[in-house]
Structure formats: structure tokens, C-alpha cells
Amino acid sequence: MARSLLVITVLIVSCVGKAGAQDTKHVLDGTMLADGFDMGVNTDKGRTDWLEKLDKENCFRMSYPAGQRWGAVFLTAGPSVDPPRPGMDFSGYKFLVIEMKGGAGGEAVQIGVKTNTQPDNGGEYKVTEPLTPEWQTYKYPLARFQRADPRNFYVVAEFVFGATPMTIYVRNVRYSK
Fold this sequence. Notes:
Largest sheet: 7 strands, antiparallel
Shape: globular
Low-confidence stretches: 1-20
Structural class: mainly beta
Helix content: 10-25%
Strand content: 35-45%
Order of helices and strands: HEEEEEEEEEEEE
Number of strands: 12
Number of helices: 1
Radius of gyration: 19 Å
């Protein structure tokens, strides 16, 4: 009887541990990309020199330069490639969760996601987020990203900038249930 109880207890603990681990899918932990993800940066004028990994602070600094019409830092499922693109299934998750802060506070960045079939024309739905100078955790319901099917995410998180130069900081990008 005691042995049966021990086996049942071990099975329950194992199942709970596995379920808990699946409640969150990490994309970026501090400055470490999880396996299967990549990161890119660009602007309308081809600038790729404004993303900096800050090891000491365990975050990325995005110092978006002046003189650009648009710019983006994007996290992709697999490498950044031309179509056809891979997709990753995030349909088991309800939220995109990102830790960010502004360089001075008052910066506004757009947050988006994109499926593997959406074109690179900026037409994907994005949420504009005003930032504070302190680290904050921002939680976005996936249903808010209209036209993006979570069964085929290619850009799993993007930070989109307009004409205004600014500095923001990002760490810890994940999906949660």
C-alpha cells in the first residue's frame, strides 16, 4: 500500500511539474534567445546598428536613430528569411508578456506579431505602448492582434518605431496561458 501511494504521489508531482512548465513559453530571457528563435533589426534606410546587448544590465537597448521613417526589432520563429517562412504554433497561449522601460519615460513603441503569410508592409495590427523610465511588465492578449493566426506565428514579437528617435530597453519576452 505504501509503495502504491508513493508511485501515485510521484506521478502527480511529475504531471503537475510538466503542466506548469508548459504554462509559459520563453522567447527571450534577459538577453538569451530560447532555442528556435532569432532576432533582427532594420529601418527604412537599412540601419542595423541601433540594437545593443547590455550584458551587465541583462537587457537590450534599442537606440532608434533620427532620420528614419520606420524601424523595427523583431523576434522570429527560426531565422529571418524571405517567404515562404516557417511558423510556430502559439495557439495554446493567451498572452504575449514583455518587460520594457523607456530611456527617459514617455516613449511610445508599437508592439506586434505576425504570421508566416503576412507581407512585410507594416499592415499587421500593432498596439502602441507608452513607456515609463522604470521596468514594467506588459501583458497583451493574443486576441488583440487581429489578422494574426497564433497557429502560424513567424514574428513572435516586434518593436516598431516611427519617425521619432528614442531609446527603450527590453528583456524577457514570453507567452503565457
